[in-house]
Specification:
Layout: E1 8-12, H1 17-28, E2 32-37, H2 40-51, E3 57-61, H3 67-81, E4 86-89, H4 104-132, E5 135-140, H5 157-177, E6 182-189, H6 195-198, H7 205-214, H8 227-234, E7 245-248
Parallel strand pairs: 1-2, 1-4, 2-3, 4-5, 5-6, 6-7
Helix pairs in contact: 1-8, 3-4, 4-5
Amino acid sequence: MFDLTGKIAVVTGASSGLGADAARAYAKAGANVALLARRQDKLEALAQELRAEGIDALPVGCDVTDEASIEKAIETVIDHFGRIDILLNNAGVAVRGGVDTLSQEDWDRSMNINVKGIYLMCKYVIPHMKAQNYGKIVNISSVNALFGDKNDMFIRHAYNTSKAAVLGLTLGMACSYGQFNITVNAVCPGLFESEMTQNTLFKSEAFLQGYSAQCPMSRPGRRGEVSGPILFFSSDASSYVTGQHVVVDGGTSLV
Ligand SMILES: NC(=O)c1ccc[n+]([C@@H]2O[C@H](COP(=O)([O-])OP(=O)(O)OC[C@H]3O[C@@H](n4cnc5c(N)ncnc54)[C@H](O)[C@@H]3O)[C@@H](O)[C@H]2O)c1
């Protein structure tokens, strides 16, 4: 049920962190992968790693806030692979600050990457999924869509808003495209080390200790631990599951 042999997966923000980990998990499950992001050198390095395992990996430069860039990227993927079965909307940015301090520029950047990016990717991928009557879309949201935090390091109002919007978009799309055998689900990670967090949250020993003390599993997430739930929503293991989200935070949000 989790086998992705012969499937074509598109991953945005594949140049680092959770996106690169998910691309590796897709490859391990047998899928060929299109790696989309802005940093071509990083994409090429990951593509080489996956090709060494016998996977066809295609690095494609793409800025998810730029419609022309997305249109061209999807054209490139279709020219190469002929279809798209899985879309992982992972690209994202976390800007710190509350509404009383955030600049409009930072607010717009968060919304553009985290929300508009998903809308635009789906706009160009869904017609292909509809035509083949098959598709698995997975949107990366966050626990910050569902839970607040008084900790200064977690005050990120534009992030909260954008990640909650991702859940709204997920359920709307799930309702509209189920008839085309397209499922749309979301994953809400808790705290994981990545480029996004390594110079902020992971820099503070006091913060990490506080987080671990609160977390029922007594630690932050490890690299690759989001990939299992992503694989579930990307494979036929979730053939009758749509419009749902799963929280991957070691139980932190329960207490
Ligand atoms: N790390 C965590 O603790 C955590 C927690 C909850 C949710 N998330 C979410 O997981 C996703 C991946 O984040 P990560 O932690 O791996 O961080 P990351 O910074 O390593 O990855 C983000 C990726 O998005 C790409 N990206 C940013 N803007 C882009 C654009 N305009 N066009 C194309 N690509 C763009 C970056 O280049 C990068 O590859 C994000 O959506 C993030 O919000 C992460």
